[in-house]
Each structure stands twice: as C-alpha cells, then as structure tokens.
Amino acid sequence: MNLSIETLIFLFSAMLIIGVLATKFSSRLGLPALILFLLAGMLMNGYIYFDDVKLTQLIGIMALIVILFDGGTQTKWTSIRPIIGPAGVLATLGVLLTTVITGLAAMYIFNLSLLEGMLFGAIVGSTDAAAVFSVLGNTNFKKRLTATLEAESGSNDPMAVFLTVALIELIQSPDASIWMAIGSFFLQMGLGLLLGLLFGKITVAIINNIKLDTSGLYPVLAMGAAIFTYAFTDFVGGSGLLAVYVMAVFVGNSDLTYRFTITRFNEGFAWMMQIVMFILLGLLVFPSHLVDVIWQGILLAIILMFIARPVAIFISMMFMKYNLKEKVFISWAGLKGAVPIVLGTYPIIAGVENSELIFNAVFFVVFFSALVQGGSLPWLAKKLGLDNDQDETAPSIELINLGTTESEIMKMTIVKGSPANGLSLNTLDLPKDTLIIGVTRNNKLITPTGETVIQKGDTVYVLSDKESRPKAKEALVGK
C-alpha cells in the first residue's frame, strides 16, 4: 500500500495519541501499557500493510537503548549494590535455565529441531526492562525485590541476545565451535562492562564541563552519548545493551549538571519510543497467523510461567538469602515484552527455517505473559505481604542548574526520619548561603518564612551553591 507523506504523518500522530491515551486505560485496568500498544498495532494492521522486519528491528533496538538509558539513570546504586550478585546470577544462569526448559518444551510442542527449540527458548528467556520498569514504577513492592527485578531486567538482555545470535549461527553453520561461542560471551560481557564504565565517566565529565547555549541541549547530548556507547561497543565486539545500562547507572549516580532536565527528557522520549516500538511490533503481526498457534502458544506460556521460570529462579537462588515468598514473587515477575519480540525478528532476517512460526509463537507468549503476569503482580505482592515497606517516598534530590551561576535549585522530599521533620526553618542548621525558596504541601505552594514548620511529605526547594549542597542535604533529609 502506497501512502502519501501527509497520511504517514497523520498515522504517526495517531499512534502517539492512541499510545498516550492507552496508558491511562492500562493503569485503570491494572495492565502493562504494552498490552494496549500491541493491540492498537494489531487493530491498525487491518488498514495498513506493514511487513518491514529490518525497519522494525532497527527501531526496536533504538527503543531498547533509550529505555535502558532512562531506566539506568533512575536506578540508585545504593539500592542495587547489595543485590548485584543475585541479579547477575539471574541474568546469566537464570536466563540459560529458562532457555533450556522452554526450548525443550517448544521442540516437542511445535515439532522443531533441538537447536530451533533452543532458539525459541533463548528469545523468550529474558525479562523485559520496559515492562518491568513500567510495572514496578507504578507499584509499591519491597525495596530489595524492586531493586533485584530492575537490575535483572536491565542486565539480562545481553545474555538473551548472545544466545539468540549464537544459536542462529549454530543452526546455519553446524560446524561452528561451541567453545568459541563461550569465549565470545565472556568477551562481549567484559567489553560491555568496561566500556559502559568508561563512557559513563566521559559522559559525566563532558556534561559537567561543557557550556551549551541552552539547557535543552544537555539531554540531547546525554542521549547521543548513550547511542554512541551502544554503537561503539557493538562495533568492537562487546555487548552494546550491557554497556548502555552500565553507562546509564554510572551517569545517574554521579554529580550531574542539569540532572532534572535530562531525566525529564529521557522519561518522555522513552515513552514515545515504547509507543512507536510496540505499535510497530503489533503491525508486524497478522492476527490470522496467531490463530494457527493459539493453543500451542497458551501451552508454552503456561510452561514458561509455571515451570521454566520458577525452576530457573529456585535453582539460581538456591543459596541466596531470599525467603520462599520472595522467590515465588520473583518467579512470577518474569515479564516479557519488547526484547523477545525484537529478538524474534533475528531468525526472520537470517532466513532460519520455521522463523515465522517462531516469531508468531513468541508474540503470543509475550502477549499472554504480559496480560496474565503483569496484571496480577500487585495482587500477588499483596497476598504474599511484600507490598508494605515503602509506604513513604524515599528522600530524593533533583537538580536544576542555573547555567551561568554556581548555584543550583535542589528539590528534596521530607519523610518521617528526615532531620528537618517537625522543625521550623529558623532552627535548621543550614549553610550561610543556602535559602529555602519554596515548600509544597498537599499539592499547594507555601511561601516559606522563618516560622514555617517542615512536615513529613513536604517538598522543599533549596537554592544553594555546589559546595554547600552536601551540608544542606544533610540538614534537611540526612546523609
């Protein structure tokens, strides 16, 4: 179907508007937004013929870079540092075990070869960062569980990508060396980790020292650095996705100029890329083809959710200090999303036999998983008693740099344990050149005076120079 430029622009705008409205309905229904995005794409499929797999893969990879960068910059190192070990095991051994169990099931259910079955398992083996960040960002789970799931989802994509590419090579070249593939894995992960740290340091140094004409260019610079990190790392043989996530975590936990501006830009851009990516993925699927795999897809999804993922989690976490309820919850939180569907395009582009069958089955499994697991996570957390230790917003600081001055406006949230809770402003031990310029309480702005008493739940805006910022933070919200 040949469409005019005006029609394409109209359709693009419709995609964005429908996607934004879908997020409102998804939150009310308690479902991941990706469900409605995919449905929107499938509905548009009846009016638009779209089968450009390579373009979809390109946009999907770009979207994953943006999503990982956004999620990584908002990940607190203090939260994930204690669970780096468990998350790393889940991202490697957990994905491998899930791949093997699901792959064997797919081999028998779809009458595939062993390698084709393993390829299917590898494609659906990882949890999806976009889905996990989306669900966890709107719910109230235990801090350790949230940190574990976010770190796992942000770091297990490279394992799934490696297994998918390696299995495609083995299918097309049976004489390929497995030992070389194993060596390639360690090389990819090592380069991804090292280059992620390196580019993270370089990015922070550039952003903090360069003087641009407008603050709106700093988020563009940061996003460009993330895309460059992926491209360069992938070019030299490393894991680009791992490098982006590591770089993003480093940037997000550094003393960064224009943090607030960068964070807000990332969040909006990540949502836009999610909407475009999922709707395109929905367009790529023909509903009539899904009917052919519906029962096998349901069976595979059930095996993945109730057998493969739980077995992988319990074996991987056998010697870790997580109780039974936490392991059950982590088992159920293996949300699937964009990554498996994007990886599902790899066999099609490579010309692997049964690739279209694999793609359709992957799409169905992802849709079913997101619908059932994503919609029931909050309920399960409540039933297991794992949703009640974050009833307060943790102290947070967001910086707005004033550009030509040495001062910054800090935004701090007061909680029950904050040193300033219950104290009047004139009794606070603030640095000499620090001013409280605004307080918001119950969504109302209060003009502060010396007699204003700070209360739990207040958001306090503080004008301070960089040198006085640590002491001001300590006086208001603690170290």
Features:
single chain, 479 residues, Na+/H+ antiporter like fold, Alpha-Beta Plaits, 5-stranded antiparallel beta sheet, 19 helices, globular
Description:
This protein is an alpha+beta fold. It has 2 domains: 5-384, Up-down Bundle (Na+/H+ antiporter like fold); 397-476, 2-Layer Sandwich (Alpha-Beta Plaits), CATH 3.30.70.1450. It is 66% helix and 6% strand. It contains 19 helices and 5 strands. Strands 1-2-5-3-4 form a 5-stranded antiparallel beta sheet. A hairpin with a 2-residue loop joins strand 3 and strand 4 (444-446). The chain starts with a helix and ends with a helix. The relative contact order is 0.13.
Topology of helices and strands:
Blueprint: H1 5-29, H2 33-44, H3 53-73, H4 77-80, H5 84-109, H6 114-123, H7 129-137, H8 143-155, H9 157-172, H10 178-209, H11 217-235, H12 240-252, H13 259-284, H14 287-291, H15 294-316, H16 324-332, H17 338-350, H18 355-384, E1 397-401, E2 407-413, E3 435-441, E4 444-446, E5 459-465, H19 469-476
Antiparallel strand pairs: 1-2, 2-5, 3-4, 3-5
- Cα(first) to Cα(last) distance is 60 Å
Structural class: alpha+beta
CATH class of the largest domain: Mainly Alpha
Question: What can be said about the biggest beta sheet?
Answer: 5 strands, antiparallel
CATH topology of the largest domain: Na+/H+ antiporter like fold
Looking at the overall shape, the CATH architecture of the largest domain is Up-down Bundle
List SSEs in N-to-C order: HHHHHHHHHHHHHHHHHHEEEEEH
What's the domain count? Answer: 2
Reading side by side through the largest sheet, how are the strands ordered? Answer: 1-2-5-3-4
Membrane topology: Multi-pass membrane protein
Domain RCK C-terminal: 397-478
GO biological process, one term: proton transmembrane transport
Keywords: Antiport, Cell membrane, Ion transport, Membrane, Transmembrane, Transmembrane helix, Transport
